[in-house]
Amino acid sequence: MDDIALDSIKELDIHVGKRLREKRQKLGMTLAYVAERLGVSHQQIQKYEQAQSRISAGMLYQIGQLYGVPSHYFFDGFQSLKQKLGERQNTDIICHNREKALNILLVEDDPTDELLTRRALEAADQKVNIFCVHDGAQAIEFLRYKTMNVDFPRPDIVLLDLNIPKRDGHDVLKEIKRDRDIQDIPVVILTNSISVQEMIAVYKNQASGYISKSFDYDLFQKSMIGFVEYWSLVVVLPNTSQDIECIPLRQAV
């Protein structure tokens, strides 16, 4: 089996898991309730939803019966990697739309720091959309399940304070990078700490950057403007890789 086929199987597991989770939540069923009805542990149901365990056809049929849908419901909308590649006209092209706003999830519990960070981010010339959550549990809930009643798109980047309640920033970073549905979202750490050991730890856990807060607002604003410019103008993110300014890879190298 080639790499594309293996990747497609992984993508299918992720797609099915996402459909399982969304349907369960829509029905208002808890993991514990579903597990009890099916005679398995709630950890096993969670593994199915997070694509950490392959689900059998028999189990998928039982879950479909419980949720009131046919088994094929969980496969609806799936497109394999091979199909996606086949639709591309030219795989040597990067398309970067610099006009699209950068969607930032700010994880910050201090109201003053939130206000200053918003003000500094909005000082950039590029468009930004900012949504803030105030503890680690809210951050994971928002990214993984989108259960909050807000109209905000999937974040392009997470700006994460380390010193937050309920689940600290280190735990949130690890959780994001363990979850295949959201691990592709870059996470940049924003913190008052200047501990080198702490900085090394977050980079080992796949942080995309580490920014130390400054007590000098002008300096802090410059850092935030540089942050926005880098992620808007230099880096090509999935949300900004459409429609405008197509750059051949061979010329870009």
Q: Overview of this structure, please?
A:
With 253 residues, the protein is α/β, with parallel strands linked by helices. It folds into two domains: 3-78, Orthogonal Bundle (434 Repressor (Amino-terminal Domain)), CATH 1.10.260; 94-240, Response regulator (Rossmann fold, 3-Layer(aba) Sandwich), CATH 3.40.50. It is built from eleven helices and seven strands. It has helices at 3-27, 31-38, 42-49, 57-67, 81-87, 111-122, 136-145, 169-178, 196-204, 217-234, 249-252, and strands at 93-95, 102-107, 128-133, 157-161, 187-191, 209-212, 246-248. Strand 2 (102-107), helix 6 and strand 3 form a beta-alpha-beta unit. Helix 7 (136-145) runs parallel beside helix 8 (169-178).
Cα separation of the termini = 32 Å
Q: Give the rounded overall mean pLDDT.
A: 83
The percentage of residues in β strands lies in: 5-15%
Oligomer: single chain
Structurally, the number of domains stands at 2
Which topology of the largest domain does CATH recognise?
A: Rossmann fold
For CATH, the homologous superfamily of the largest domain is named as Response regulator
Reported CATH architecture of the largest domain: 3-Layer(aba) Sandwich
Largest sheet: 5 strands, parallel
Share in helix: 40-55%
CATH class of the largest domain: Alpha Beta
Strand order of the largest sheet: 3-2-4-5-6
How many β-strand runs? 7
Q: Segments where pLDDT lies below 50 for 5+ residues?
A: 87-91, 243-253
| Structure annotation, total helices | 11
Instruction: Choose one word for the global shape.
Output: elongated
